[in-house]
Amino acid sequence: MPQEGIITDSKGTFKSKDQIVYDSFEKQPTRYAEAPYEDVSFDELVSEAISRRDSRLKFEGLPDSIEVEIPTETPIVIGLFGDQHGSALYCDYEMLREHTNAIANNPKFYSIIGGDIIDGAAFNPAQNDKIASFSEESLFAQKMLDKIGGDSIIAMLSGDHDMWAERGGITIYQNFKERYNTPILRGSSAIKLRVGQVDYLIVCAHRLPGHSMYNKTHPENREAKFGQQGADVYAGFHTHQKGIAQDLARQANGEDIVQTYVSAGPYKYSDSYSQKMGFGQQREKSLGAVWLVLHPHRKEVEAYWSLKSAEERIRPYLTGELKSDKPIDSQDLIDEIAK
Length: 339
Hints:
Layout: E1 5-7, E2 14-16, H1 17-23, H2 42-60, E3 65-70, E4 76-81, H3 93-105, E5 109-113, H4 134-148, E6 153-157, H5 160-165, H6 176-180, E7 184-185, E8 189-195, E9 198-205, H7 218-226, E10 233-236, E11 243-249, E12 257-263, H8 272-276, E13 290-294, E14 301-304, H9 307-319, H10 330-338
Parallel strand pairs: 3-8, 4-5, 5-6, 6-7, 9-10, 10-12
Antiparallel strand pairs: 1-2, 4-13, 8-9, 11-12, 13-14
Helix pairs in contact: 3-4
């Protein structure tokens, strides 16, 4: 039985009845109750980017300056306390414990945590120098900060090893601000610190730009000249090169500034990388925090290499042997005589 159909062109092309029917169907477009996509303008995208940026910055909470006040009638000590490298094999844990306890137990001791609290290495051979897992080193850091206490921490600077540790999962940074009510700073940051009646400006970062094999406080000096100028203290970490220097910065207004430059020492005294580069193990005096004594009634910064020296400096104030040199108020003097 011949198939029903027709010849569709002069060349004799045959199309069957079924094919003709099939070809007559058209795909109908889908119909949505609401448009699945609306075109977005550039200005709308910018507004959305601003909203996301502001939300992200608020969530991360990384200011570039903070203001802090410590009410006191006697000098205080600030330990520039960083590069602990908890979980590192070559680490002076005895000194780390001593300094942690000093900050925690002395009512006049405070700290700026300088970063690299943990070793955080997620690659070899550096990872082979660790004696703890990622979770263990985070626990170590948290216990250290708990021991110090939030009231003794002025700020914490984020270091590169700390950010390495994030590859391993949850770190102390996830709840640091809430746990200790203390800000985290990253990059060159200004701490406006009032001690008693005196305002100090401290510019600090885990790592400040610059490096010199001849001058251990070169990054801090460089920041004073080419970065944020006019501070009383410039403090850096990271280089594992302990150094202290002071200089007088002449000001056009006649109010010259005595500037203190500090490169704080590490608690990690060696590792496979430094050994590969030919460096020997660091000794005790080159390790650990630098201790600043700040006075509450005159602007003066004293920097000490050792914890013992800082403790001896303020002990007379704590025992009552030495009174703070508070300016005499005439009314206070009258009231004293009247007694």
